[in-house]
Amino acid sequence: MILVIGGTGTTGRAVLPALHTRAVPTRALVRTPGTVPPGVEQVVGDAADPGALRAALTGASGVFLAMGNGPRQEEIELGVVAEAARAGVDHLVKLSAPGPADSPVAIARMHHRVEEAVRASGIGHTFLRPYAFFQNLLFHADRVRATGWFPTTTGDTPLNMVDARDVADVAVAALITKTTGTHVLTGPEAISYPEIAARLTAAGAPTRCVTLTPAELRAELAGAPPWLVDHVLEIQHLATTHPEHPNNTITHLLGRPPRTLDAFLHEHAPAFRASPILR
Known about the structure:
279 residues
């Protein structure tokens, strides 16, 4: 039995059906009933609740852990690790973050601390360290439909991005084979936000990328949780000071190339297109 924690998140919602279609006994810990694919067992509860967590871990030999970023993430993930060790789980796949343990990005440092707890627990493990997901671009869709532009502080800096479905496929392979390792995952190219805007335009969704200062972007993000604003600014600053380069890890692990950004943008271009009335 594989327990998926974070099955409604960007990666987890691709992990669940992939496991199920391979006839792998799968269970999800979810806050809301009925949010998992048919045929997937569910335990309704919160990963922060030890009782719900213990119930979900009963009989599980593997765990996929992908908590949403937030102020309590480290506390909750450490609790999952402790309960998984107590339950006798023999393999844990954790969605983590790239960069060194002393990364200037606070959330990346948190991921490394949780990784250390997993190592100390003795559980066999696979750490997946993707860069930004293609799917994150969809957060700009409402703004692009309404205004035709989105902001960034990274200018022409090329950025590593990856399709979350490829990360899910790597996770599923690791869960099934119980292959250990630490993998930095990227798509096939590093690309700047202005180039992404140009490709969206070519896909039929006219888009501009506007470069702002960090202070201007912070003002644009007013109303978002402060920790999230800090995180966005930290990762964008890091990208401008530490060049990002794609690798072939997904091809090596899956025996096929990763999905391309162009394919993703064409798939989702309608989400960025304003109606003729709005234009």
